[in-house]
């Protein structure tokens, strides 16, 4: 697991008495580093974390940057704005967290950017077309997946993996659709159980459908196993051993 830090929320009072939020190191949250192929998963984790802390406005721009200076009092014309200082501190901490969750190849593309929003917008622009292509690829792989030589357990896990990846990318696959994808892959020998699943009056749950397919596979394997005689040999083998090979056997009075 990656050691990317996450930052919790604490209250910070500005010089003018106003209260803002600051983030502090809380440990590990993002389990992966952003690379060329996992943007959708990385984005979901970042959004979920910052939304949980109420800090997503730094990504979207809703938390706008205050003026750096404000009119002063007495003989001072302008003074540093404490709201800006607090905002800038918060923004830089989020930037640091985002940058620490990226691989070196991605870091090169955001070098020189100065705010969290600039980094977020740049990544979104760079990965939008790639993300769309990745979604289409996952959907195609799910729709064309066949059981083939896989065991039913392996096949069901493969379907689940694709569905989970789509869900992580924001394209949730419902249980009903997952069942339909599952039923599209097995061979014709599974037709009896497939008919049983699809012809039920009450909708079949995903768990029930998986259990029925696994149970049916077990029955198929049992039926296909050869039976053995008491001496441990196969009946078919005994038949082949004791059957006369001569084509004239019956004409010679054999029984």
UniProtKB/TrEMBL annotation:
Sequence ranges of Polar residues compositional bias: 237-255
UniProt-annotated stretches for the region Disordered: 227-255
Pfam families recorded: Retrotran_gag_2 (PF14223)
Annotated Low complexity bias: 227-236
Protein name: Retrotransposon Copia-like N-terminal domain-containing protein
Upper taxonomic lineage: Eukaryota, Viridiplantae, Streptophyta, Embryophyta, Tracheophyta
């Amino acid at each position: 697991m990656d050691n990317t830090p996450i930052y919790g929320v604490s209250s910070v009072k500005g010089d003018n008495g106003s209260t803002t939020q600051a983030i502090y190191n809380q440990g590990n949250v993002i389990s992966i580093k952003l690379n060329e192929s996992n943007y959708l998963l990385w984005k979901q984790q970042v959004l979920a974390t910052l939304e949980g802390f109420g800090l997503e406005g730094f990504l979207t721009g809703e938390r706008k940057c205050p003026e750096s200076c404000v009119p002063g009092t007495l003989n001072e014309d302008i003074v540093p704005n404490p709201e800006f200082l607090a905002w800038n501190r918060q923004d830089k901490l989020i930037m640091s967290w985002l940058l620490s969750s990226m691989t070196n190849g991605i870091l090169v593309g955001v070098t020189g950017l100065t705010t969290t929003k600039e980094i977020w917008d740049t990544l979104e622009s760079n990965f939008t077309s790639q993300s769309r292509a990745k979604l289409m690829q996952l959907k195609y792989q799910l729709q064309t997946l066949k059981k083939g030589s896989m065991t039913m357990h392996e096949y069901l896990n493969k379907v689940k993996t694709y569905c989970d990846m789509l869900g992580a990318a924001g394209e949730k696959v419902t249980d009903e659709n997952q069942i339909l994808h599952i039923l599209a892959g097995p061979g014709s020998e599974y037709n009896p159980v497939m008919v049983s699943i699809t012809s039920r009056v009450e909708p079949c749950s995903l768990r029930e459908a998986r259990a029925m397919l696994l149970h049916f596979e077990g029955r198929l394997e049992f039926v296909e196993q050869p039976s053995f005689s008491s001496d441990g040999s196969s009946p078919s083998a005994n038949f082949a051993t004791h059957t006369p090979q001569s084509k004239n056997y019956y004409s010679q009075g054999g029984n």
